[in-house]
Amino acid sequence: MVEDTGKALRPGTYKPVNTPEELKVEEDAEGLPVTVKGKRRQAVISIEDRWRIDDEWWRAAPVSRLYYNVLLASGQRAVLYKDLISNKWYEQEY
Amino acid sequence: MPYAELHCHSYYSFHDGASSLEELIVRAKDLGYRALAITDHDNLCGAMQYAQLSKSLDIQGIIGAEVTLEGGFHITLLAKDRKGYSNLCRLITAAHARGERNDPTLPIKLLSEHTKGLIALSGCPKGEVSQLASKSRLSEAKKLIKQYLDWFGVDNYYIELQHNSAFGDTARNTVLLKLAEETGARVVATGNVHYHVRERHRLQDCLVAIKNCKSLEETHRERRANSEYYLRSVAELEELFRSHPEALENTLKIAEQCTLDLTKDLSYIFPDYPTPEGHTPLSYLEKLCYEAATRRYGSITPQVRERLDEEFKLIKKYSLAGFLLMYHEVIRLGREVMIDLGLSDPNLTLEENPPGRGRGSSVALLAGYLIGLSHIDPLKYKLSLERFLPADTMSSVPDIDLDFPRSIREELILRTHEKWGWQHAALTGTIATYQIKGAVRDLGKALGLPEAEIDRLAKQSDWGSAKKLGKKMGRMPNFKDKIEAPVWRDLIQLAAELDGFPKYMGQHPGGMILSSTPLIDIVPVQRGAIEGRFVCQWDKDSIDDAGFVKIDFLALGALSQLQDAVDLIKERTGQRIDMSRIDFEDGKVYDMLCRGDAIGIFQVESAAQMQTITRLKPRNLLDMAHEVAAVRPGVGANHGVHEYLLRRTKKKPVTYDCPLEQRSLERTLGIILFQDQVNQLAIDVAGFAPSEADRMRRAFSRKHNEELIEQYHQKFLAGAKEHGVPEETAETVFKKFNGQYMFPESHAFAFGVTAYQASWLKYYYPLEFFVAIFNQQPMGFYNLETLKEDARRHGITALNPDINKSKAKCLIENGALRIGFLNVTGLGEASAEAIESGRQRGGEFKSIGDFLERTGVLEEVALNLAGSGAFDSLETNRRKVKWEIGLRYRPINTQIPLPLPVAQDMVELKAPSDWERMKEEYNVLSLYPGGHIMARLRPRFNGGFHTSRDIEKLRDGAFITAAGLVIRRQRPHGKVVFITLEDEFGHIPCMVFGKVYEQYEYTFRSAFLIIRGRLTRRDGTCNVVINKAESFNALEKVPASKDWR
Lengths: 94, 1045
Description:
Chain A has about 90 residues and is an all-beta fold.
């Protein structure tokens, strides 16, 4: 159940779920993530899994992303992706 | 590390695979793969083609399929050897025999009974093992794996590990590896390939959308998650499977086990023939031949004996007796059908009334002529066995096509299925492929483009390759601004990729393969769209490659026409003409052809043929063969026709690019007219073996063949060099080969004979000729209006239908052609039968009311009959007739109609004008028996306009302005367009060249044209070269022109 905040709904008060958040990532020579600069800078200990999506190539903003499920130095797991069109990195829950 | 890809879909995985066989093989070779398996969904449509291609391109090709099991699970099966291939064919056949026609499923029990010679791989994520693994149902998965290991053995069953970077691949593979370890099964890495390069993923997405009849937006779930289903580099694969290199090594272990060579291992044996007791196939064939020869020639002459002896030696050497007897059996079956359908007199012998005609190299066989296979006496026409059937080609299957009249073909196909059984007689498959219209419609929908615009674009796109879409759009006012627009430019790019892709497998209209051993050991067979028909999964090319006995039950309208004409002549004169014994050197008949009077004559009536025949001037059957062969795209592609005619009319000398060309080209003045000459050139100039020369020739006509052709090109140059031919000369010779169609010499000869026979009938029996051609419509190059005009020029009058004189079909009446009821729009067999039987029972119809009451035809039918003039013998005012029909007509229902008087309701109505009568006749008959529309329109086109009669008298170079009805448009392979106008006096043949055609492309589609241009006269031909055109309107409904590519 979603908690009732008591606030009235207004345009602009809703936002899509699971919006990717841009972050800075350092890559190695093969383009794999080695360091993630989120709230703090962390090394990537291992890449547990990776996958790719390509879609909506017929639209003005095609989707082409390489996802990585990584284990960070803090022990935290994160899902990052590199946008293959803009070459920017994002974090997104998956 | 070397690698073999064992799971790959070509475009024969309809609407799923997005690359051609050649693209896949070439890419695999470039990547250094050792082998490539093609595993299309539930079919082997491309298997023979693949075997040929992979051999030519020197990479190991493995034959397999991804088969759908009960429950919708997939499994990958690879054929190791001939037995494995046979099992694969049987399994696919069994899968198609169940369930819905296009939804094959194989009962898993049958799989267990057909494991020998097969290697099974557990399949893609849709495989049952993968599905169980993904759902963590591990004990069930282990049980299933153990079952497969039990059936196939540990060396022949592998768990497929696929990693296409889709979410879940890593997790699934982890579980599969554990299952393999626990069960003792081996693992193998496969790519689940659906296209050869990454960029093709866009087309693959579209194919999935098309398959689901939805747009890309609507098929998010059905489409693959990413673009990783391409042939990847070995380095990429090594990286993906670095922790389990044995998965890659095992690809080679499997490849090494697969030794099947489909180009050799089918070991097709010519079918046996169950002969009467005391006979072998050869002795029985001899018996039949000698009996027929006695009937034909009166006795066995020394010439006949010598020829038969020569032939029987070859027939015995190559075991062809059973093969020929099988064809004879089909001809006999055809004769039974004709007798059963009342189309032949049972007292006639087979050779007096053959049901069909053979084409192909068999025309050279006297034995073939005697047993009813061919209609040409090779002794009379000195057809040498060596020319048509050289000894070295007898080791492969001589090709024989059998043409049958339309009327018996359908029944014959069903009886052949019945007689031999569907496992031994199946129809040839045919693969429909994407051209421009289909590509626009399907891709347009997938891309979500506006429906109305896509519809308009498809209609305006006309015909041809989808690669030309961009260019065509550039010439369309409504679309030229869209070429660079988003999504529209995707449409153009994707259409070019989709061009030539298989769309679906259907049945060939008449090709059938026969086999004494079960067909399903050689090629999968599935149910056809029509009940009772079974179709094999190979098309004509694959069947030719396999060397099958294939009989083409081709329905030739021309044969039906000749048959009908001969029957009509017998009815009128009491004499049955033996068309194989007419004078084939009658100068008067050739004179008629040389004048270009060829309308309605098989093979020589097209615009291009008529332009050629007046220059070629045939005087014998060999000339006719040259005429028929010359106007083919393959000859035209090299300007062959033009060059041949110049040499024939001695305007140019006969020369050869190389002395080694002389043997094959001497008889055609140094020009390639027949496809056999291409083979002979490859043999003589470059030392090819006959079978290799044939494969090279056929490679030219295959799609996506660039790499293959280049290989043959290099072989040709190398071979020519060994024969002392300079490279430049060898290149010149090689450039003469192309993929456009040419006739084999024997076909051209057979067709030339049929064309002559039709001409002979037209000259001596024009009445029967035209009645027969009217009754065989639709056929040929002309509509009824044009045929009627030609008949008129030959002294034959066409009479309007008459309720008291016509029958269903056209008939002869006092030297004229009485149009039949079936020619009236809306009038079918049932109504025609009702009118005839009404007349038979109660005599002639006395009035409109009498007609309506006794026939019970529908009001619309009666009104159309009135419009056609069918009641003119009772009442000439057709308006009055229609009024009365309206008053008297009572639909048939449960109420008994009262014969109430209508006289009080009759009114005085003005009779329709001549123009109105003419319009209505065009409307309901598609012709105007009483004249020609241009005669009525002539007052509009008097001053400054030429008629066809005027043009005959004008000199070369004269400026022409003319108006007429378009009766024909022809575009032989994209060069000049031939358009023929018709006026009340005859025809105006026109030519339109490139730029002018582009400028007036849409105007030329109109039914009526005013044209302006210049007259050219060359070697007996006459054309108006158009430089301006405009259209005009005259009728709402116009007799349709016949348009040909």
